[in-house]
UniProtKB/TrEMBL annotation:
<dbReference type="GO" id="GO:0018822">
    <property type="term" value="F:nitrile hydratase activity"/>
</dbReference>
<dbReference type="InterPro" id="IPR049054">
    <property type="entry name" value="CN_hydtase_beta-like_N"/>
</dbReference>
<keyword id="KW-0456">Lyase</keyword>
<dbReference type="InterPro" id="IPR024690">
    <property type="entry name" value="CN_hydtase_beta_dom_C"/>
</dbReference>
<feature type="domain" description="Nitrile hydratase beta subunit-like N-terminal">
    <location>
        <begin position="1"/>
        <end position="100"/>
    </location>
</feature>
<dbReference type="Pfam" id="PF02211">
    <property type="entry name" value="NHase_beta_C"/>
</dbReference>
<dbReference type="InterPro" id="IPR008990">
    <property type="entry name" value="Elect_transpt_acc-like_dom_sf"/>
</dbReference>
<protein>
    <recommendedName>
        <fullName>nitrile hydratase</fullName>
        <ecNumber>4.2.1.84</ecNumber>
    </recommendedName>
</protein>
<dbReference type="Pfam" id="PF21006">
    <property type="entry name" value="NHase_beta_N"/>
</dbReference>
<feature type="domain" description="Nitrile hydratase beta subunit">
    <location>
        <begin position="122"/>
        <end position="214"/>
    </location>
</feature>
<dbReference type="InterPro" id="IPR042262">
    <property type="entry name" value="CN_hydtase_beta_C"/>
</dbReference>
<comment type="function">
    <text>NHase catalyzes the hydration of various nitrile compounds to the corresponding amides.</text>
</comment>
<comment type="similarity">
    <text>Belongs to the nitrile hydratase subunit beta family.</text>
</comment>
<dbReference type="InterPro" id="IPR003168">
    <property type="entry name" value="Nitrile_hydratase_bsu"/>
</dbReference>
Length: 217
């Protein structure tokens, strides 16, 4: 859970775990992908992740992995008014034989979104701000919207291990505010730097966008 305490140990998947434990999960996966494309006017993984983040606790945890995908897809469709609020619940109740009045189909207000190219990799004209071996600090920031900077890295210092290709910035792309491509860096953090002297000894490497980083004094 992004380094949040209190959720217990991580349980790795079984080596023989199937992609879909039950048939409905495959349908949920397909419906979530289709919903995202219809709502966003194209593939926008960042907008879908932001929808996942905005689910309440029950919608995110109680319905399981593929259940939250369905819930996120429904949220995106509601955001773009492809669906009216409560339309899915009303239809489900009607299919169960209840006499429920379903809301009228609204006029869609999809975002004006077209990706500049396939995938997330892009080319930028500026040189990387940080070189391999440079000590950097993850910015201590608390953005109101979507970000891929984990909370447990903010304000912590690490070392650049690799300069990755530039990519679309999720923080703006999730909100349809432009791709804003930036260089990406693989940064190594010591476990003691992140979780204190009582942490198990290991190194954690994170891929971080240029705007997430600053030089150390």
């Amino acid at each position: 859970m992004g380094g949040t305490r209190g959720w217990g140990p991580v349980h790795p998947p079984r080596p023989d775990e199937p992609v879909f434990e039950e048939p409905w999960q495959g349908k949920a996966f397909a419906l979530a992908i289709l919903s995202s494309r219809v709502a966003c006017g194209g593939i926008n993984t960042d907008a879908f992740r932001h929808a996942l983040e905005r689910l309440d606790r029950a919608a995110y945890l109680d319905d399981g992995y593929y259940g939250r995908w369905i819930n996120a897809g429904e949220l995106l469709l509601t955001d773009s008014t492809v669906l009216a609020p409560g339309a899915v619940d009303a239809r489900a109740r009607s299919l169960r034989g209840e006499h429920v009045r379903e809301p009228a189909v609204p006029e869609p207000t999809r975002p004006d979104y077209r990706p500049a190219a396939e995938g997330s990799l892009r080319t930028v004209d500026t040189a990387p701000a940080f070189a391999v071996g440079r000590r950097v600090r993850a910015r201590d920031m608390s953005p109101a919207g979507h970000t891929r900077l984990p909370g447990y890295l903010r304000g912590r210092t690490g070392v650049v291990e690799l300069v990755q290709p530039a990519a679309v910035l999720p923080d703006t792309n999730a909100h349809f505010l432009g791709e804003n491509p930036q260089h990406v860096y693989s940064v190594r953090f010591d476990s003691y730097e992140l979780w204190g002297a009582d942490a198990e000894p290991f190194a954690l490497t994170a891929e971080l966008y240029e705007c997430y980083l600053e030089t150390t004094s």
